[in-house]
Structure formats: structure tokens, C-alpha cells
TrEMBL record:
Amino-acid positions noted as binding Zn(2+) in the UniProt annotation, renumbered to this chain: 649, 651, 673, 734
GO molecular function: 5-methyltetrahydropteroyltriglutamate-homocysteine S-methyltransferase activity
Organism: Paenibacillus hodogayensis
Job description of the protein: Catalyzes the transfer of a methyl group from 5-methyltetrahydrofolate to homocysteine resulting in methionine formation.
Metabolic or biological pathway: Amino-acid biosynthesis; L-methionine biosynthesis via de novo pathway; L-methionine from L-homocysteine (MetE route): step 1/1
Cofactor: binding comment: Binds 1 zinc ion per subunit.
Keyword annotations from UniProtKB, A to Z: Amino-acid biosynthesis, Metal-binding, Methionine biosynthesis, Methyltransferase, Repeat, Transferase, Zinc
Protein name: 5-methyltetrahydropteroyltriglutamate--homocysteine methyltransferase
Amino acid sequence: MGTTTIRSSSLGYPRIGADREWKKALEAFWARKTSEVELLAQLETIRLNHLRTQRDKGIDLVPVGDFSLYDHVLDLAVQLGVVPERFGHTGGPVPLSVYFAIARGVQGATASEMTKWFNTNYHYIVPELEGAKPALLENRPLQAYREAKEKLSIEGKPVVLGLYTFLKLSKGYKAEQLDELVDQFLPAYLQLIRELDEEGVQWVQIDEPILSVSLPKAEMKRVARIYEEVRRAAPRVKILLQTYFEGVEHYEETVALPVDGIGLDFVHGYVRNKKHLEQFGFPADKVLGVGLIDGRNIWRSDLGAKLAFVNELAAQVPLDRQILQPSCSLLHVPVTTSREKELDPVLKQALAYADEKLEEIVLLVRALREGEAAVADELLVSREALEALEAHPGRVSAGVRASVAAADGSEPARSKPFAERYSAQLARWNLPVLPTTTIGSFPQTADVRQARRKWRSAEWTEEQYEAFVREQIGLWIERQEQIGLDVLVHGEFERTDMVEFFGEKLNGFAFTANGWVQSYGSRCVKPPVIYGDVEHVKAMTVAETAYAQSLTSQPVKGMLTGPITILNWSFVRDDLSREQVANQIALALREEVELLEKAGIGMIQVDEPALREGLPLKDEDGPGYLEWAVRAFKLATSSVGESTQIHTHMCYCEFHDMIDSIRALDADVISIETSRSHGEMIPALEREPYELGIGLGVYDIHSPRVPPVPEMVSIIDSALEVLDPALFWVNPDCGLKTRGVDETVASLTNMVEAAKVVRTRIAAGGGQPA
């Protein structure tokens, strides 16, 4: 094979570090254990190590500016001067104190809203554009470029979030104002790109994932106008317009944009992007960023198949105009498998984290440059690893396959309609109007984490650990009674994570020691790995829940994570459809639901915070997903008796666009995060009435601030303008695992008082305030 100038690239690297050193540095600073100077020095060391790793692995185009102190969307917002007035910023580069206040909140100023980054489990901070006066206050991509060049001699590729994606993901404006906003923001944005051009930067990666969602074609005119202005402002720098997470919506218009390269996702967008490429071709004056390696899952790639695909593409786009890269930023996968010392060797060999994915890309580039014979040994190792995974004894269970087949074609349903069930539940529990409860977890303090470490390291026996957990349950049952909550929870002190806990007790899951990924801010999660058929083995939650119920006469909710959330928050096998895996999980959870009911637990919460997260980016794919997702939930929950009350919980859910599916879950009570969205849920409920039990979160658990009673009363009052008080529950936004004890008790005490204020008014016949 002749030589080719095909190149390798990375679109972004995990921020957290192999040992989560990024997280630890941030949290030490927030706890006032380190100074701002010390924090910035620590983060510089981490950032340079990440760049060095990518360079040393042989990546040709190393991204710079993808590193963040919290979130990349927030980064662009503060660079462009988008700082909500309540944070008191008076001009100039945004100080760290204000930056973190926007993300986390401070006393007297609520944090900006946080929501999911497209259909991933990463959360971004939503920019608030109302009243914004755009101006370039700082050019962080330029700073990152200079740092890489001066300290590591790396000719970096600055990564910048696209202006159109930024505006579409923001809030505080009406749709008809979008053209005006483009006009307002373009000068500052163009200055950012122009400064990179003037610096002599060779390539800039501009991320526009919004081009992969369902957009009206008319919007492409705005996108074209932006890039025409970018081209005029920065005529020398090469622009790589990067899309990911799906096939682009308007392919012809996208590839016609005045840029030097287009990055396409050929993993999650394989079908659409390949079809478009075959149908319309690719411009001869552009390079193609081939998103070849899955940036969102952790399995090795079939490198033989990847090579064949690249060679097939070469018929339309010559190899010297291809750049091989991950399908998206590697932000969504762990850093390196080298720390996985205890994992089943067969599974470990089948995994590829960020570092291994970069090695796969470099290997493919080498094969294309030098011929496959040059990398024959490495290709053989990769192929044998995947074959060993397929032969793993835990991969297939005949019993699970038979159970799923038996459930196919059926439509699970409760024995009675909601109105009859709710009457039976009211009679059973005799709760007051506006019952108060929490979402499930209580603070995982240092003592709780230390106890778990001692147990996992065998320093404590099973009996010692169980005694500790029971002590914590007893303490928090007593606290909940003192606070005055109506429906209690056991606190989940035995659980590290709401998905990992269940995966550890089900067949078909494996667990990594260091498979951490960023969820939001410094919050990292370690998703389980679903490698085989999922099967219930024994009771998972009954002992702790039943013990908590034995300590109180008030109802205690059983707490389970729903099948779709377990699916969406795990790294899932890729040899079965996601629907098939969801049904396996649902049948396993149904066994646990029935065991809880048999143990006398009459309220069971099956959380689905990730239901909307899994919604496909294309509108035409949504109904099919929602149909099987709702069915999986009902498969898990519908076998209980009429007086057993099924609760569920959802986060970051745009209620109005899936109200029919939420209603179809047929949960007796649903709780939804709403406090950061500042009442936006209320108009949606006015348009789409909801006739089942519902709780709208009355305070934000992601912020350390303690909300005052009047603030929560106001949220309850707003909700009751469109909801029946007989069906309304009062609760926080989400679980309280990450909060401190004092702030949790203070916030819940205020929440209960707020419910009493409104309850008293209702009892007196006062209704809503004028």
C-alpha cells in the first residue's frame, strides 16, 4: 500500500483524570482546604498531563480548550459575558467565585438550571440570555493553545462550542428572537475566532451537535450566515465543523457550509450519515472527520470492520482527506483500563476506555499508512478479545431468554384504573393533603463512605457493616419523624450509586474499579457494565426497607431504580438491542417489586430519572423508543395489588413534549425536578392537565443553599394553580445523597413548614392567594 497522509484526531479528553484528581482538586477548593492559586496550579498539571498523554499516543490533532473547571457550555457563556444579574458581576473576566456560583448557587442567588447534554448522562449549565450584553471577556481557547505550544510544543486544535448550538441550548428568549440573538452574539463570537486566526492557529474544531437533532431546514440559513461571517472574520485558520451523537439532519446544507472540514458520527449516526454520503457525495474541497470509534461506550471496536469501512469511504473521500477520530468527545468514557486490576480478564480485554480508544485510532491510521501486515499482531489480539467475550459463560442465559420471549406480545397493566387504586391507597395510608416526602437518598457523609470502604476492604465484617447501616437508618427515621415528613425513606446508606447497587446484585453485570465518568460538576459516576443476560438472583432491598418500616408507624417507601434508568446509566452490551436489554432488566425488577410487596411495603418508588435522556435525537425515532420504554416500566411495576402505591421520579424532564408517555407509565405518583426551571413546568401543566398523583420539586438539591419557607410556598402555590391539591405531593427536586446533614435537615424542615402553611390555608377554605 502506498503512503497516505490520513491523520488521527481526538475530539476531547476526559477531564477527571485517571484517579479523579480533577474532582478532588475542585472539592478541596470548595471546602476551603486549598486556595484559588493552588487550585489553578493543580488543574494546570492535570490539563498538561492530558495533553501529553494524547500526544505521546500518536494523535496528530490534539484538542486544546476542551478542559473545563466545571462545564464547557458555562465556559463559553462566561467568556461571552452571559452572567445572570443576580450574581452581581460588574464586568471584566468572570472571577472563579462567580463562575462556580452560577453552577452551584450561593445563598441569595439560585444556581442556573442544569440539564442533560443531548441524550447523554452529562449535564450542562443552561445559559440565561435574558438581559445579556454579549462581549468577549476572555479567550480561553487561545489561552489553552498558547499553553500547549509553549509548555509542550504541541500545535493544538482549539475546541469551541458552536454559536448556534450555544444559542439553541440557552434560555431566556422566544423563538422569533433567534435572528436578533445571532446578530447580538456574532461580534463577540467572531472576535474569539479571529484572535485564534491571528495567532496562527492551524485548525479550530467548532462543535455543532445541534445539527444532528430534528431541525427545520429553514434554520440552516441562520447556520450558514454564522459560518459565512466566521469565514470572513478568520480567513486563514482551518475550521473543522464537528457534529456527533447522530446523523446530521440536513446533510447537503451542512456539507455546503464554508468550512474546511466536516466531522460526522459513523457510530451513532452510522445509518443516516452513510446513506447521505452515498446519496449526495462529499465536497472535494473539504476533509472528512470520520467518527469511527464509539466515544460513548467502552467496548473494543471490531477493527477489521472499521478498516473495511474506511477503505469503502475512500471511494468517495480519498484517505488523504480523511481524519480518523472518535464519534464524539471522550468525556463520556473512563480514562484508562490500566487501573482495572481485579476485573475478569476476558471482560477487561474486551474494553476500551479513552486511552485505549486513542490507541485504536492510531492503530487504524498506521494500518492505512503502512498496510495491515504492519499491525497484524495487534489486529489479531483485538479480534481474539471480542471472540472471547462472545464465548463468556455469563453472556447468555436460557432462562432469561425464555422469560423475555414469554412476555413478548403482552401489554402489562395494573389490575384497576388509577381512580380506584388511589381511593384504596388513601384509605390505607390516611395521609394529609399535600403529603411531604423525599426522593430517597440522604447524605452520604464521610462516616458512611468510610464504613463502606472498611467493609469492601474486609476490614469490617458483613455483620459490622450491616449494624452500621441499620444505625444510620434508625437515626434518619428518627430525624424524618422529628422534621415532620409524612412518607419516609430508609436513606439508601448501603448504596454507592442508584444503578451500581442493583447491578451488583443482578446477574449479567460487571463492575470496574476505576470506570469513572463525569456526570455534572465534580459529580462522577461509575456506570455498571452490562455484558450478559440480566437476571434476578435474590432480594436486593427488602431487608433494609423492612427494617426501616419496623421502626415507624408511618409509611416507608421501597426504593428501586427503574429499568430504563439502569439501561441508560450503564455501559450496555452492543450485541442485543437496547429494548431487549430493557425487558430483561424489567423482569428482574418485577421480582424485587413483588418481594417488597410481600414483605408489607405498600409504597414502592421505581425511579426513572433517565427516561427522557434516552429519547432519540430524531423526532421520528421518539415514539418507538417511548413505546418500549413505557412498556418496560409497566412490565416491572404492574403486577402489584391496587392498594400498593407505585411512585416514580424524573429529573430534567421537559414535561410538555412527553406528557402522553408519562401518563402511560400509570404510576400512582410521579415526582419531577422543577426548581431550577423557575416555574416553566406550570404553563406546560396548564396546557396538558395531569390527572395522576404528582410532586413538583420545591427546592434545588444541587445547591448548598437552604431555601426559605416563602420561596417554597410560592412554588407550591404556583403548582396548585394547575394541579388538584388532592393529588399534589411536596418533595425536593431529587435525592439528597450529595448534601450535608445540617443543610438537609434545615431545608426539609422549611419544606415541611411550607406544606403546612399551604395546607392550613386550604383547610380554612382560603384556596390560592389573590
